[in-house]
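Service request form, structural biology core

Requester: graduate student, group of Dr. S.
Request type: structure prediction, single chain
Budget code: on file
Notes: please return the result as structure tokens.

Sequence provided:
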Amino acid sequence: MTQSHDQTSAIDPVKLEKLAEVAVKVGLQLQKNQDLIITAPIAALPLVRFITRHAYRAGAGLVTTFYSDEETTLARYAEAPDESFDKASGWLYEGMAKAYAGGAARLAISGDNPMMLAAQDPEKVARANKANSIAYKPALEKISNFDINWHICSYPNPAWARQVFPDMAEDDAVRALAEAIFSASRINTPDPIAAWADHNANLKKRSSFLNSERFAALHFSGPGTDLTVGLADGHEWHGGASKAKNGVTCNPNIPTEEVFTTPHALKVEGHVSSTKPLSHQGTLIDNIQVRFEAGRIVEAKASKGEEVLNKVLDTDEGARRLGEVALVPHSSPISASGVLFYNTLFDENASCHIALGQCYSKCFLDGASLTQEQIKAQGGNSSLIHIDWMIGSDKVDIDGVRADGTKVPVMRQGEWA
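Core staff response, request fulfilled:
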């Protein structure tokens, strides 16, 4: 749908520029002479312009942006020959991987229409996603292995805003989503950069407590959930600001409310139900229910998007195993807002969650020096995908399980115990 007029009037430009400044100074901590690669929906151009200005002000070498557009994405599904859906721009991702190997930083602006591909053939969507995942792997490895400083933030794209606030006029929906993004990103505070320093310190306290305990597993219990997540050998908890292998401390996600680590790929048992819908590549997957045996999902159901879910699980051997477990209090600002964002960057910070697929090598003691074989031997999972979905609520309790089987309350009714 073509926009009939300029949407940016609904977005406070002062706050938008603050978001850009936080992205460059807190999200990336962009270094002098460091190149920056940005990916963004074309609707996010106003934010890209602010970020580019602040990046050069911070001393960036070269800023290069790649734009996506909903209408051109949909044109492929309407007009392209069948064999198109097994193709991806490998040359582009190889170039990105080369740039990251040369020290470039990475910034992604999310904000695509969550339902963009909902009406498209799930088979074609799955094939296109798989081809893209395979092509993207060399670049994604540099990001997931934390070789570089990277960051994701969001822009209130009108199509996204209409999904989140369907009963509002478009301008009002964009304004409401913009305010929700600013609030969750701590932009509405007098000094957002100082607010992030305080918040990062609080998350550090939580991860330090969990690291001192060295639990063997976590046990989740609640409606439709009785799940034991074994933790990888030598796992390490992280949250908020993280130091990349290039020595730069960055905040990969803004907003963020989570502390997270690596589960043991072979030691997850029981069943779990999602507590929020998952918006994945333009498809909404709701009421997910899965059962694990020996770390692997052996049964998966969903009331909506089940076909897409099962195709995702068939991506590769590691897609049915976990790569991340994250703890988030139910009272987090994003949860308290009551807004369902249909965007994992936000919704995962409203609730405890698990991720299918690739683990983060960073979430191991001395992770930077471990080989892929060592990570696998310690229980780390490998996959082309990494997809977070939400399993926490005010009805879910979590216990830390020690090596001797004794349990320690970690969360009660969704809050830190």
